[in-house]
Design brief:
Largest sheet of chain A: 8 strands, mixed
Number of strands of chain A: 12
Order of helices and strands of chain A: EHEEHEHEHEEEEEEHHHE
Largest interface: B-C, 40 and 39 residues
Helix content of chain A: 25-40%
Oligomer: homohexamer
Low-confidence stretches of chain A: none
Chain lengths: 227, 227, 227, 227, 227, 227
């Protein structure tokens, strides 16, 4: 059903959200069993931003940002706005005025499967956006969509309140009720990497550290010298 | 007809061009009634450049930059070179030598629906380029095209002398004889935005500021609480 | 034949490699007769890097980075790792741990026709990567490929030991036994450009400097004034 | 969680499925309020097929068809196999042997967000496939995925047992428990179109039949004669 | 300016239109000096259609087909409807009901830089369409555009009354006042090809027939035997 | 080096070529160890063609078909013309006159990593073409390339005399001196499939026929019933 705004208040625990933000996208995605990733065409408008927050979702008609205005009222401090369209679009559905409003409500960033504009001002504001395009194309306000319904954004399912983690590697979605488990698994994974990094820096080969040689030989790998 | 160079001298008023440059792409595009935009695949080679100028247009064979040499002679101070190809191409048809020449003639930038190369040097020169690709692919000088004929560049019609406005949001084309009207309309729009920004910063919702609630309700928008 | 690791030790002369690095991609590509270029979708993860080195090649199953671990053992100081896949993929097959290991072995960069992740850390490490995508998508270690066999990477043939030159303009491949000849040709070309740049800066037209006017007229180019 | 096979037996009522098949994709999609559509890159391998059936879903590693073998055991007569990948892929993960097996189990078609091969034989068998690519690229059987979990296929959420409707216009997904309602709504819509078609054939304008003139005038539409 | 319908009655001579239709796209495009072609992503929904007619143009908001209804009233017998969007879209903005209406008014085909649906029915009706996509995605009727203004459709400028020629090779646009000249030039070209075809069939080489050997040798072409 | 025509006469044994043609692309590609495939964007202009033949290769400047005329002289009966470009292009570099000439010399088909035109006539002639695009865009004859040098075509390395196999599944390249071995391996594979097909038709599961259950269980696959 379309044309619905769901008032969603349930969010993951703020400490788990903070852990996921610090882990970043690649570690979180691995901790989830390599699931939950948006497609790699979603890129940040400037490098270095790293955020996590609860999703307020929008399903919009392409080229129509009416529902984004509706969604901003549903933002709680720390939330991330997630905009999906009913068909592919690169129109600039979000700009500096919407960012000003979203920021004033406590929103920490935008993930939009469409275009964004005013990127210079957004960069100066330090307001991070992950989008499929940068485009000045103006939009209309004519057709209803929905807010806080499950949406597919850039190939990933996002339900309201899910934790969105975004950094220079892309965007990953953690289901709200798995946030604690994933945060824990990610931390364990990260602890494990420090020691690995030290050994690799010292010149040890992954082949040895991960004990891959036997498996490779069993699979039939053959070495020979150049002619 | 192909193989023609038109000596075009008519340009928009310099004050209007300066206003359009300061307004930038998104505001100018809105002031035009959301028309005139090039496709969003046109991206600047470095962030932060913001230009406007009269178009000298080139229609080139893909992978052949002979006519760009021809066009540079037609550049007047403040102009922007606009290169379109007769078929899609990403070849690097423009590099630092051409930029040196274009700059020496007073050209302020390049918009090319193809590739550009030597981007590190161009960045150091502060010579802004909007292109569909960065590519070292070398070009030939073998086939005639035309200079200062109407061209379709990245989906937009450009006539010689039209005002090209380009910044981090993309590229927009303002017909020469509409420059004054659009500059005025853009300024009015911008003045209007300052007050809006202040109110949004103070936490007022776009829903209220733009008086959208009634329209949304009439369209059938329904609110409900999360299960 | 697949599942083979060739121990390749032959590299081009280090002085030629250094010359090619300083020439950069566009000049090297021109010196080769406009051949050897990878497709322009190969982009650096940060601007400003400029490298050259001998290729250690990997042919991998998409989404499987097992053979990258195998390849790192074959790296000699100054080498560049070149990863091709048997089908198009954007998966993040390489991250900061592999970069740490590759760097510890003396590798100077990565060229991968797939995705890369941990780009923020890689940027902080100053470890340059040219890739078709940035993606956190994790990979498996399940299927054999080959190391140091000829591969097609981003449309270019790369044989082990070929010289890879990469900068902001893209990536070009110089066959190992042509490195000396191309380095020489590139230097001659570059020397030639300094004088040209000076003349163009002084306002001379390419039309005159390259003596193009006669050729253009013979081809039928017509000049006329704007109506 | 990955590596799971859910034995799903719940399907929509067969009569509703038959109605949806006869309505076809465009009408079904409209009856759903313009939702549920897969992206238009999903194309049939031959024209004229029109199917509907319950979804057995597969989430596969790109280039790995192990789980498709697993999924075929879960097929019930009348079902449609729906294959999604954890990253974009065009590999030919399905061919005539799998089609033979799927058909023998009662499967009526395949929807795969990847490639398919043996398309000539599949066409001769009358086995319909909607895919993003045709590719001979062979696959491995090395990595677990899941069967009958919710998946995102070509931008649409598909849950096991949902009704897949596919024809020359594309693929649409009807949630299992909405099948009856949508079938009904689609039939009403279709009945309504017969009369419209007759009137349009007779030369009546949509402008009049849909009473659009007033709305257009109110929106500000202006008519003028050609200069 | 947007929101305008121009009542355009001027068309090219019907005999010239008929000649252009018979010449087809490739010959017409050559006769124009290799200009006027739409981008090759424009494909017919079924093979074998070959049409020519005067353009009635539409500039539409993506995903909104309101103006197509307006445009049909402007169709004269023999016309082709040409639909451009203000931003890229694949939505199915045209289906069998609109085709019924367009056909009833004498329209001979549709060229749309967006999607089309009901393609099976359109094929059965023998109503030819060239589009960038096939998509069931439904559209709204909410935003004004314009009819019979100059538009850029698939990279080509189309003015109302221009002659659209379309066949299996794509779509080409002939300016209305050049139709007679191009028809003549195309016929001359075609007459010339019959004799060429006969000689090539008899085994004569293009190298000899077109007397290319001297030019190739002068350009430096070298022959050598395989090692 | 560019600007070279190599007179290449060495071809694989005609019986092996005939076997490879009958095996088709998917089986040949599997017999090669899943290598040698061109990218799946290479599509036939009509369904049902199935060819194999020795490659005469062309490396052309995009949009310039001069070297295709040169190459036709090098065709021996049974050969396939393979055209690669030095940069991506969709221009229609080949049409019915070139096909007439190629056919008259005994050529059996064309594989071109660019566009083709006159497809209706080519279809009527029964002259098969695999291309990346269909486009009427005319080409020039101005820049040298090479004939019968190794080229990269649609991501695959092709050396003169290699066997090109092409059908509805795409295009695969068999190195000339591996043709006999691959033909043999392909036949063995095919013989093996007939029995498999019979068993699958009878309802046996691939899970059982390929004895996959143990491997899946060992990898950790879990079955559970729907909630």
């Amino acid at each position: 059903m379309n044309g619905v705004v769901v008032r969603s208040k349930k969010r993951a625990d703020a400490r788990d959200v903070a852990i996921l933000r610090d882990l970043g996208v690649s570690t979180t995605h691995e901790a989830m069993g390599r699931l939950g990733l948006m497609k790699p065409y979603m890129r940040p408008i400037y490098p270095g931003a790293q955020i996590a927050g609860g999703a307020v979702t929008v399903l919009a008609q392409p080229g129509d940002n009416w529902m984004i205005h509706v969604a901003i009222e549903q933002i709680m401090p720390g939330d991330v706005l997630v905009v999906a369209c009913t068909a592919d679009s690169t129109d600039g559905m979000f700009g500096d005025l919407l960012a000003t409003s979203l920021k004033a409500r406590g929103g920490v960033g935008l993930v939009i499967d469409a275009g964004v504009r005013d990127v210079r001002t957004l960069t100066e504001m330090g307001f991070p956006v992950w989008s499929r395009a940068i485009s000045a194309k103006g939009t209309v306000k004519a057709t209803l969509g929905s807010v806080n319904v499950p949406v597919v954004c850039a190939g990933a399912l996002v339900k309201p309140g899910d934790v969105i983690v975004a950094d220079d590697d892309g965007v990953v979605v953690v289901p709200r009720d798995e946030a604690a488990r994933i945060a824990e698994a990610g931390r364990a994974r990260e602890a494990n990497e420090t020691e690995k990094r030290r050994r690799l820096e010292a010149g040890e080969l992954g082949l040895d550290m991960y004990k891959m040689r036997e498996g490779l030989a069993k699979a039939g790998l053959v070495y020979r010298d150049e002619d």
